[in-house]
Amino acid sequence: MRSGKFVSFFGSVILACLFTTFAVGQAAPLAGFDTYAEKARVDWEVPGMAIAVVKDDKIVYAKGFGVKKLGEAAPIDDKTLFAIGSSSKAFTAATLAILVDEGKLKWDDRVSKYLPDFEVYDPYVTRELTIRDLLTHRSGLERGDFLWYGTDNSRAEILRRTRFIKPTWSLRSNFGYQNLMYLAAGMVVEKVSGKTWDQFVAERVFAPLGISATSTSIKAFKPGDNVSMPHAKIDDKVASIPWRNIDNIAPAGSINSNVLDMAQWIRLQLAQGTFDGKKVFGPAVAREMHMGQTVIRLEGQQGLGYPEAHFLNYGMGWFLSDYKGRKLVEHGGAIDGMRAEVALIPEEKLGVVILTNMNGSLISMPLLYRIIDSYIGATQKDYSAETLAKFKPLLAAGAAAEKKAETDRVANTKPTLELASYVGTYNNDLYGEVKITMESGNLKMAFGPAFVSTLEHWNYDTFRGSFFAAGNSKPTLTFSVNAQGKADSLLLGLPGMAQYPFKKAAN
Prior knowledge:
The chain is an alpha+beta fold and 507 residues long. It contains 13 helices and 24 strands.
């Protein structure tokens, strides 16, 4: 799932364009956009994508480009389903807005009023944390995403373990992207309404909009459904990868949809909670969700994500910035092999949704700006080429860092102990177990269902694995040997992330 504009890009040679057109055709402001979008898709090496535009409460453009699965001919169309990732957060904010609008809770109610067993590391924060805090990324906690990503932990177990996450900042002092707080928000919805978050969002949001193809779980997919496959670049070659079940963090990012359904969601947002004359939530709570709540510093953001912005805030389930004198309300989403963008320019009654089936591509923001420029009469600018030119050096830097890790490896070393001596179960209060076993003469690690790998000796008591989960990572495990000559702990490290300590359980 997306964190601000954190990305990891994978690309490859892509098939020639295969696309289908929505019946309304191409509106005059978007003349030439098909050609531009298709070129951008190829340049960014994205197998397939779909785009819809809403203007003045009407869908004026909806089209698919490319293919559902690389190597197969089935084209993307406007009904093809994608994961929308963290664009789901705005739906969770809306479920709470409905409850606020009905007087069943208040934005500034303490979370403990509804979830009395929910705790975070600091007792003060546990006591003071509010519904508003859950939705605005200001809890102060580090992300803790390995509590849910690739694990079989239930929603309840994830929230139970949240008490072990140490804060990075004090409460409300900084923006810190936090998926777990959105899970807590979804659990508040369940407590207040008596329905699961999935049931509530389906009944109170999806149903009024008539978006029957949209779901909160990949378990809703049936054979023959119009579904895109996720893709990623693995060992310099783009390939389709499996869909990941993220039901355990659903309120933060599990919704799957298509651009026609998402266009109805955009119509609801632009109409401040009214859809086809019927109220879903009131204008007061609509304005609150689109109002700045947490300041985000712009340093490092303009170059890739917000080239025209003078400010950046977070509302409730939405990023808020300015674009050429207009307010931009938007949120991206990313989960394995998929990336999405949903955006509103309220004063222009304009909304855009872009769904893609490629891991970590930045194509959506340049295409968004091209569409906005077309409707506000701005001079056309090739944001796609500009952004790609800035992004390629970052890719090169990442490759150089990986190469440096290879050169920093100390050659001709060996482990302190025989391999069998490292076998065992290692525990961390927050993240659970890392199991080390022997298989065919090699050590093997298992850290939840998604993180399973044979280990190669790296140097001294450090070993390295490899798995696609978490971005085709090569984790390192460094064992510690105690005074009795036994392995008693390990540090699990992932590139670009902290190292996590695990203590070996007694035999």
